[in-house]
Design a protein that fits this description.
Blueprint lengths: L1 E6 L6 H11 L4 E7 L13 H11 L2 H4 L2 E6 L5 H11 L5 E3 L3 H8 L4 E3 L11 H9 L10 H9 L2 H7 L1
Parallel strand pairs: 1-2, 1-4, 2-3, 4-5
Helix pairs in contact: 2-7
């Protein structure tokens, strides 16, 4: 069975790694949807879809990368169009891994199996918290995988976040 996990990954952090492992423990293959892929960079979405894809791919090992595929999921103001667009982008999947109530509601109405993802240190491992730590020169390095750290340093994340 295939599964789908959609996230913004702003940035990709250790909690996301745990979510991937959790999902992969239940499915053969996992489709990862990079959400808000069509949004311009701004304060709450400072990293492009390509940068987020690079963070993910550089942070996982071969045992994970051989079982995932990454897709860009743009935002729509219309929920019905959003779901239909996902269906046109992502191959068939039997379960969606999400804690988002709206996504759960939309997919349960379509008869999809929903699986909540256990949160790991939710307050600490959140994109908002990590972005704030980057800006304020607090220790954020231990909250992200090495691959994400490398990408964030390469793109000058601190300067970008300060500007945004």
């Amino acid at each position: 069975m295939n599964g789908l996990l959609i996230g913004r990954f702003q940035p990709f952090h250790l909690g996301h790694i745990e979510a991937l492992r959790f999902a992969l423990s239940q499915v053969d293959n996992l489709w990862i949807g990079i959400g808000s892929s069509n949004k311009p960079t701004e304060k709450n979405n400072p990293f492009t879809a390509d940068e987020r894809k690079e963070m993910i791919l550089s942070s996982i090992d071969n045992s994970i990368s051989s079982r995932i595929q990454i897709y860009y999921i743009p935002d729509f103001e219309n929920h019905k169009k959003w779901i239909e667009n996902i269906d046109s982008i992502v191959p068939h999947f039997g379960v969606i891994f999400t804690n988002d109530e709206l996504t759960q509601s939309l997919y349960s109405k379509r008869g999809k199996k929903i699986s909540s993802v256990p949160f790991r240190e939710r307050e600490t491992l959140s994109g908002t918290n990590i972005r704030e730590k980057i800006i304020s020169d607090q220790n954020w390095h231990d909250l992200v995988p090495e691959g994400t750290k490398t990408v964030l340093q390469k793109i000058g994340a601190k300067n970008r976040l300060k500007i945004l």
